[in-house]
Amino acid sequence: MKKFVNDPKDYVSEMLEGLALANPDTLKYVPEYNLIMRADAPQENKVSIVQGSGSGHEPAHVMTVGKGMLDAACPGDVFSAPPTDFVYETVKLVASPKGVLLLVNNYTGDRMAFEMAQELSEAEGVAVRTLFIDDDVAVQDSTYTVGRRGVAGNFFVMKAVGAAAERGADLDEVHRIGEKVNSVTRTMGMALTACTPPAKGSPLFDLPDDAVEMGVGIHGEPGRKREKLQPADAMVGELVSAVVDDLPYTSGDGVALMVNGLGGTPIGELYLVYGRAHKQLVERGIEIRRSYVGEYCTSLDMAGASVTLVRLDDEISDLLADPAEIPIRVF
Amino acid sequence: MKKFVNDPKDYVSEMLEGLALANPDTLKYVPEYNLIMRADAPQENKVSIVQGSGSGHEPAHVMTVGKGMLDAACPGDVFSAPPTDFVYETVKLVASPKGVLLLVNNYTGDRMAFEMAQELSEAEGVAVRTLFIDDDVAVQDSTYTVGRRGVAGNFFVMKAVGAAAERGADLDEVHRIGEKVNSVTRTMGMALTACTPPAKGSPLFDLPDDAVEMGVGIHGEPGRKREKLQPADAMVGELVSAVVDDLPYTSGDGVALMVNGLGGTPIGELYLVYGRAHKQLVERGIEIRRSYVGEYCTSLDMAGASVTLVRLDDEISDLLADPAEIPIRVF
Taking every annotated instance into account, which residue ranges of this chain make up the domain DhaK (chains A, B) (predicted)? Predict the structure, then answer.
């Protein structure tokens, strides 16, 4: 394993410490609960937004804490859900009189931790709602999931609810917006290589030199099929078709298009993928109104990419255009 | 080779096409000369800033074109200097009455192309100055270089001269600022793995599973030494010591600290590296006033990182704080 790591069990805490040191004015790291929060949270006049997930998907979610997005992120260890009590303590730390919205990518472990934390928090009088994100079209159920997985499309939900909360929307309204964005967002990804968790020290699965995993999950879960490596146009075409056909997105739709890198693929390749996807969508009569290229939801050092579409209306476009102040300036 | 690529000879042009498609309002792609320029260049009332280099270092430099940074970037093929006539055509396209500043990382091929383009442009009456960047402390001369190499510290020069130009500074003043920033900027990087150019299809050099290249160049050039893989603290310590001792940076200095990923290292590891470097610098009495973590100047898919320090004064701090509008929002 070739990584910048000391003791693998300190990987997450040392990463979070670095994140806080790099953003001393805006972020606070609370080591007891492994959480990153806005230094100025809670804001009394806005709904607080919290997301957690396993670590290893950075920038999701610890690097998307800031004005206009999350008030706090409570990550677990690499590819592990955060403990219920850490989620509960996070909710208490950022609880605002307007309530707390919990965002959860749809994995069984995360759902359990957040649902229990919601119950505990409500018992103490905090208004809490929970929203599950399940944008991944690759498979219906998966290794750690009943129902679809939540992946990079999560960013659009975070951004829209974060913007709505900053504008003063109440908890029900923020929840409505998040559900709406999730309902028009679809993603599929593919792996060129496996990823190596620091504590394991070796690749999580075997992928031959001439093969790719089409529809891979962000923890290396199997996708739709393993197939031969092909030229970019063909592989991008498979991703685009799977996403377009699912909602479906149709001629005349205006969309946001995101090409997300899975951690080991350089930005030059991601822009190449973006260009091919853009042209394929235009050929289908789909109008691209907003573009996102970079790393949003990764899988450690996995080489690969995902394609996300969001069908836009005026309300969603407007919320996505609001400013956000986060460590990585992806929006 | 596992990459998102069609015909490797189209790698750069397809990447640039994707970049332009993702930024239709702000960027223009000129395929004849392989260049990316601001859609609104030239601006009559400001010095135009141009940088070129081999491709494969993205986001440098095609993704740093925009208000407050570059007016144009003219990349060559992967790891190859741009042809002189492409640089010359770029200068003509963005020439402003206030002149053009050419930024060149110090590699022999790039120097030749830009010096000749400057002569050709001056013969046509364009006021041109050229500034060479050589922040890499690893080695004195190198495979493609007489004198030190220019690497990620280049971003601070780009940002400062871009800001000064937007404020209306004249060509001599913009050049003075660039020279000053370069003179207080130092970088060293290290590779955990080699990189694979698309046209070669295999790794550019061999690096055993238990070895790292300390002081590597961004084209895979040899560094100071090949050594055993160590825990992050020890490897970061070597980078920090080499950089600090070179200028040298001393107790009481206020600095900008950049941790730059070389393409294949995920952002989580980069923040871990940042945290370790930050603490080591604080122990030396150095005050970190500005922080940069992410990918700035890469080497295709190489796993590795570099550490850059800039000694700040009020003038440099002020320029670095100015806004910039570029595709990747790193500043």
Answer: 7-329
Q: Which of A50-54, A255-259, B323-327 has the lowest mean pLDDT?
A: B323-327
Q: What is the DSSP letter of A42?
A: P
Phi, psi of A280 (to 5 degrees): -65, -35
- Asked whether the beta carbons of A326 and A66 are under 8 A apart, the reply is yes
The answer to whether A61 faces chain B, any CB pair under 8 Å, is no
Q: What is the distance between the terminal CA atoms of chain A, rounded to a whole angstrom?
A: 33
CATH class of this structure's domain A8-183: alpha beta
Block residue for tokens 């003038």: B315
pLDDT of residue A66: 96
Helices (H), chain A: 11-22, 84-94, 108-123, 154-166, 171-183, 232-246, 267-283, 314-320
Question: Is B5 close to A275, i.e. CB distance below 8 A?
Answer: no
How much is the pLDDT for B280?
98
What ipTM score was computed for the predicted complex, to two decimals? Answer: 0.96
Hey, what are B6's tokens? 């069609």
Nearest to B90 by CA among B59, B58, B54, B49: B49
Confidence band of B330 (pLDDT split at 50, 70, 90): very low
Q: For the purposes of burial, counting CB atoms within 10 Å of the CB of B203, is it exposed (0-12), middle (13-18) or buried (19 or more)?
A: middle
Whether A291 contacts chain B with CB within 8 A: yes
Contact A4 B235 (CB under 8 A): yes
- List every span in chain B annotated with CATH 3.30.1180.20: 185-313
CB within 8 Å: B21 and A279? yes
Which own/partner contact pairs does A26-30 have at CB distance under 8 Å and 24+ positions apart?
A26/A66, A26/A67, A26/A325, A26/A327, A27/A65, A27/A66, A27/A327, A30/A93
* B63–chain A Cβ distance below 8 A for any pair: yes
pLDDT digits (tens, 9 = 90+) for B145-156: 889 999 999 999
CATH fold, domain B185-313, is Hypothetical Protein Tm841; Chain: A;domain 3 (3.30.1180)
- 8 Å CB contact between A197 and A149: no
